[in-house]
Amino acid sequence: MALTKSQILEELNEDQQQPVINYEGPSFIVAGPGSGKTHTIVSRAAYMIEEGVRPENMLLFTFTRKAAGELKERIASKIGKKAEGLTVGTYHSICSRLLRKYATYLGYENNFSIYDEEDKKNLLKEIVTDNRLKPAVVASYISDWKNKMISPAQAISIAENSFEQLSAGYYQEYQQKLKERNAFDFDDLIYQTIKLLSNHHVVLEEITDRYHYIMADEFQDSSDRDVELIRLLGGDRENVCMILDDEQSIYGFRGASVQAVLRMSEYFEGLREFILRQNYRSTKTIVGAARSLIEHNTEQIEKTIFTDNEEGEQVVYFETGNPQEEAVKVVKVIMGLIRFENFNKKDIAILYRMSYLSRAIEEALLKNGISYTVVGGVPFYARKEIKDIMSYVRFVYNPQDVQAFERIVNVPKRGIGKKGLENIHSVANSLQGDKIDLINACKNTELSGKAKKGLEEFNRTIKTLQELIEEGESPETIIKSIVKLTNYNKHLLDTEKDAEERIANVVELQTIASQYDSLEEFIYNMALNSDINEDDDEEQVNDRVQLLTMHSSKGLEFKAVIIVGANEGIIPHWKADTLSGVEEERRLFYVAMTRAEKMLFIMRPRITHVNGAPMHAKESKFIGEIDERYLLKTK
Q1: CB-CB contact of 400 with 435 (8 Å)
Q2: Residue 115 DSSP code
Q3: Is 357 in contact with 605 (CB distance < 8 Å)?
Q4: Which of 269, 309, 370, 604 could staple 365 via S-S, CB 3.0–4.6 A?
């Protein structure tokens, strides 16, 4: 049964009601953590339709398809079929829809293809001929230029060095090739839509005649480009509503610009500001602690956040000796929460700045039989780079390990394709006695061209590693030698977008190896840790401790949150060497803190390991910025 306007308003507090009833003209809805933001958006859309606004005239942007589906369902649950015709979608999906209709204005056919990252990479491999530049580097330049609405011609004119000049030339060729193939890449979807709206007034007029009211959720994650898109779509009516929490802007590395968001008043005269001040999620203590931290930021909208929830426990802060002791402390906290607070495992989240920090935690959870899930990521021992290096270890230790061999023979790429692999196996079968002999097979297989050279290099690498094992070298030395002999870090830099994080995982594997004297024991324990059994009982499978990065935690909430690795260089990250960089890191820590409903724990190890060597770590400056009355420092 559809709700009436008065019933919709009855479900809202006074702060939430204001943006719902005042929907004409440009406005901000500034929504703090746990303030009922989605409830307010849903109510606003439903109220507008009940007021007589046609749903066909409303356009609502979200950042994920899941959020778009959820919003449509919740609006429909309030007002039923009246919500049909409402357009809700991500920036990319809505822009794609517009381009399907108007692509001919840009010289494209309406049946264009959309290239994914792999398609983009393959096209750039065809184009990039200068050995000084990797296709991945050119791809990064192109993406950055498109995010800044810089055309190929502009990129060529502003290039400051030879690498930028080369990349700009490839950018021009890349765009020409895309057009020849009637294709857009994902960056093009927004970039080309803005060009369409900016250069073709008849199209802009037709679209703004259709959409009279624009809402944009998670606007703090918007870039200058997104801001320009919303400004254009707002047209002369300027019925634009941007929903955001400036204190949760944490995607600067993806082009998000909190400065662009804060400048919106320059674009829209009479911009109204509605602030949702009441936090329904967290205790007074957690809200107070988080506020005392974020108030150190200078780039923010002034606001007062409060909660009527219980006072709650102090935020507990632990310092431990090293990451292993930190992991043991995490396990003890989890067991205490389950035993004394009656929390389920799924009510508990462990948050970290960098994914490699999960390794020691995962190992401790496995040893203590505590089931867990790595949310939005892959368990440490299942990560590609860890499996690559461990496959080298396994094969050198056991040359009959076919799976390990097939994984590494062409990693990094050595030109050994499917046919080359078949030839090696054919030779192995002809040599086979009691056991398969892949090492001798590699030595006796005749390949040609690049594959021949690649196989010779592989044979030399394996021979060197075998000699190290025969000489009794430590597991740590073996791992370091694999990385060096294969130039594996360069391989990651050339092939992976998140190369820095993957390299950090490889370094963490070296740290693990440094704890073992025996290669056999190291391989055995790694295999045990990799074998995470899935329980068939659905309730037990779902009841798992949640492990996730701080970035992945945005939008989620848990009864208890445990933040680990709160050291300088980790959070704030060592690359955050500017004021705006540190402020973004502070917002990230704030996001992590405000995921907690009932209890919050923060931990750090005093000693960490870098390339296997112990190093003293400094406490994160953010700890000292939290008001002491909210902190319980303990051992």
Answers
A1: yes
A2: E
A3: no
A4: 370
Do the Cβ atoms of 145 and 155 come closer than 8 Å?
yes
- Of 337, 353, 262, give the one whose Cα is nearest residue 301: 262
Pairing of strands 348-352, 558-563: parallel
CA 166/CA 399 separation, integer angstroms: 45
The distance of Cα 329 from the centroid of its chain, to the nearest Å, equals 27
Q: Is 78 exposed, middle or buried (0-12, 13-18, 19+ CB in 10 A)?
A: buried
Mean pLDDT check: name the lowest of 14-23, 162-171, 565-574: 162-171
**Dist. CA 281–CA 558, nearest whole Å:** 9
Cβ pair 142, 171 in contact under 8 A: yes
Sequence-distant (6+) residues with CB within 8 A of 510 are 476, 479, 480, 483, 611, 612
* Cα separation, 143 vs 616, whole angstroms: 38
Summarised one tens digit per residue, pLDDT across range 58-95 is 999 987 888 888 898 999 999 998 989 999 998 888 99
Contact predicate 188/112, CB 8 Å: no
Tens digit of each residue's pLDDT (9 = 90 or more) over 140-157: 899 999 989 999 999 999
- Which DSSP helix (H) or strand (E) runs through 388? helix 384-397
Joined together, the tokens standing for residue 46 give 């439903």
Give tens-digit pLDDT for 422-475. Answer: 899 888 888 766 567 788 888 888 888 888 999 999 999 999 999 999 999 999
Three-class DSSP labels, 444-499: HCCCCHHHHHHHHHHHHHHHHHHHHHHCCCCHHHHHHHHHHHHCHHHHHHHHCCCH
Catalytic residues: 37-38, 217-218, 248, 595
Torsion of CA 294, 299, 302, 308, to 10 degrees: -30
CA angle, 57 then 61 then 64, to 5°: 145
**pTM of the full predicted structure?**
0.76
pLDDT at 51: 94
Peptide bond into 379 cis (omega under 30): no
Give the lowest-confidence range in 102-106, 227-231, 269-273, 374-378: 374-378
Task: Return the DSSP state at 320.
Answer: E
Which of 342, 446, 439 lies closest to 398 in space, CA to CA?
Answer: 439
